[in-house]
Amino acid sequence: MKITDINGRVQLNNGLDMPYLGLGVYKTKDGEEVRNAIHYALKAGYRHIDTASFYKNEEGVGAAIIESGIAREEIFITSKVWNDDQGYEGTLEAIDESLEKLKMDYLDLYLIHWPVPDTLNETWRAMEEIYKSGKVKAIGLCNCVEHQMDTVIENGSIKPMLLQNEFHPKLLQQNMLDFCAKNNIQYEGWSPLMRGQILDNNIIKNIAEKYGKSTAQVVLRWDLQKGVITIPKSVHQDRIEQNAAIFDFELSEVEVKQIDSLDNDKRTGAHPDHFMEHFADK
């Protein structure tokens, strides 16, 4: 990944250019809260917004894009098909519902939110049809380990363009980084700041002091230097702006390895092999 500035992009395996920094809107309330967050982000230079049907804020996301006055084609929009909507017919219906809520003709990226075992192949078949129809410019998955990705690649006719997994200094999943690199699938990380749990780490604090940056900025810069697209979530204007101010310094190889060494396979979310039980308990 060539890191330049907030306008920088990476090319997916189908040739589509995707911004490597975006705003995540998980748990951002629909209406004024999500609209304001997106306005702050767009004003700061972000051109990538990551939402999902499960977030229940697609209407607000779409309204904010329209209100911004920025041309639709300049903003990269991601959404996801939720577990209950998966399967062939359900997925075909889900994309139309998302587009209606967003008031958009197409999405830049559409993802399978979790790999529901019984319907994964049929869901991916629908994703391929959606991609061929032009309703989305790229397709991929979230929250997968190798065997789930292998299933999709072996049974499908179109290789996923992106995998979005939980990714932060305590959950490196080097095997998945290597898998995606080998298969030319772009890696994207959610929960890059570990829901705030990583920000008091002394190693990261020391690096932050050296560069006059916050620990969050160091972690987000580390994401990019690992070749991982990052989508930090915030609703606060100062934090959104701060999260984008990561292009005036560069971590050394030693510092990247120091942060790598924090990996202990700790998750803040469900494991891809056990998410069905996780959500059944909610």
From TrEMBL:
Gene3D superfamilies (UniProt xref): NADP-dependent oxidoreductase domain
Keywords, in A-Z order: NADP, Oxidoreductase
Pfam name, any one: Aldo_ket_red
Keyword Transmembrane among UniProt keywords: no
Record's keyword annotation contains Oxidoreductase: yes
InterPro entries assigned to the protein according to its UniProt record, in alphabetical order: AKR, Aldo/ket_reductase_CS, NAD(P)_OxRdtase_dom_sf, NADP_OxRdtase_dom
Domain (NADP-dependent oxidoreductase) ranges: 24-263
Family of this protein: Belongs to the aldo/keto reductase family.
Protein known as: Aldo/keto reductase
Organism from which the protein derives: Zunongwangia endophytica
Lineage: Bacteria, Pseudomonadati, Bacteroidota, Flavobacteriia, Flavobacteriales
